[in-house]
Design brief:
This protein has 242 residues and is of the alpha/beta class. It has 2 domains: 119 residues, NAD(P)-binding Rossmann-like Domain (Rossmann fold, 3-Layer(aba) Sandwich), CATH 3.40.50; 109 residues, NAD(P)-binding Rossmann-like Domain (Rossmann fold). It has 8 helices and 12 strands. The strands form 2 sheets. A 6-stranded parallel β-sheet has the order 3-2-1-4-5-12, sandwiched between helices. Helix 5 links the parallel strand 7 and strand 8. The chain is elongated and about 60 Å long. Bound molecules: NADP nicotinamide-adenine-dinucleotide phosphate. The site of NADP nicotinamide-adenine-dinucleotide phosphate has 23 residues, from strand 2, helix 2 and helix 3.
Length: 242
């Protein structure tokens, strides 16, 4: 029976696991193991890092994996780089499943930046910032004098939380009404977000458009060169089924 490793941690990875299991493929999903209470895919699950490309290559050989789908978050660049290297070394075929990025629409006012540091540089002392770039990004923004941040993350950031930062813990999906209420309640005027794409967390972009909040959009890192990339679960399932 064909055995497929899905590098996961995303809604697309869970959908792919369900689709392949339904098609009779033996799937093992891998999670980084950093989120408490992760949403689990159907089928076999393993958790924790492999130990870089070397560790993943050894794991692929030991487990007799026939194909790997890298369905990690578009910003999980280290895992994607390890997967590309391990696949090349072992000859195990690799596909990247990566949801499309968000696109600016009429009425939007986005500034695209290459990384978090550049995003922080664009903030001013009176900005009230909706920060959705992940709990580990807080130190990058701690040095912006005078700005105030509402930082939303799934799990709490490592203490100490920098001054001028209020943390709210929650996990999507979010609604436009809910995001508008947050913007009003905290008088937010800037949204800093990564271009994660997908529908689960897109409501903040609609709310920003409707309330005139300017958006600083951190671009995705490029996928590893030479690896085939698809955007949808059905295409990934067809490839993985073999
Ligand atoms: P990362 O920086 O690329 O990964 C750091 C290390 O964590 C990797 O080198 C690997 O350790 C381990 N790792 C990451 N994903 C793994 C997986 N699916 N299975 C086993 N080990 C994994 O990634 P990250 O940004 O920390 O993201 C971690 C996980 O959270 C990813 O699986 C991703 O899909 C999910 N996620 C990330 C974001 C985000 O904004 N970055 C958002 C939502 C969900 P070893 O080198 O030891 O193998």
């Amino acid at each position: 029976m064909r055995r497929v490793l899905i590098l996961g941690g995303t809604a697309e990875a869970r959908a792919l696991a369900a689709e392949l299991a339904g098609r009779g493929v033996r799937v093992v999903s891998s999670l980084a193991g950093r989120v408490t209470n992760p949403r689990l895919p159907v089928g076999e699950v393993r958790e924790g890092g492999f130990g870089g490309a070397d560790g993943l290559a050894a794991w692929l050989r030991a487990e007799g994996v026939d194909a790997v789908v890298d369905a990690t978050h578009p910003f999980a660049a280290r895992m994607s780089a390890s997967a590309a290297e391990a696949a090349e070394r072992t000859g195990v075929p690799l596909l990247i499943l990566r949801r499309p990025g968000w696109r600016e629409e009429p009425g939007d006012s986005w500034r695209r930046v290459p990384d978090l540091v550049r995003a922080a540089e664009l903030l001013g002392p009176h900005d009230r910032v909706f920060l959705t770039t992940g709990r580990r990004s807080l130190p990058v923004f701690a040095g912006v004098p005078g700005a105030w941040f509402l930082a939303r993350s799934v799990d709490p950031p490592e203490p100490p939380v920098p001054a001028g930062v209020q943390v709210i813990l929650s996990r999507g999906p979010y609604t436009v009404e809910g995001e508008l209420a947050l913007i009003r309640e905290h008088r937010l005027d800037v949204l800093v977000t990564k271009d994660s794409g997908g529908s689960m967390t897109a409501a903040k972009l609609v709310a920003a458009r409707r309330s005139g909040v300017r958006v600083i959009m951190v671009d995705r890192p490029a996928p590893p060169p030479g690896v085939r990339c698809v955007e949808g679960v059905p295409a990934a399932a067809d490839w993985a089924q073999g």
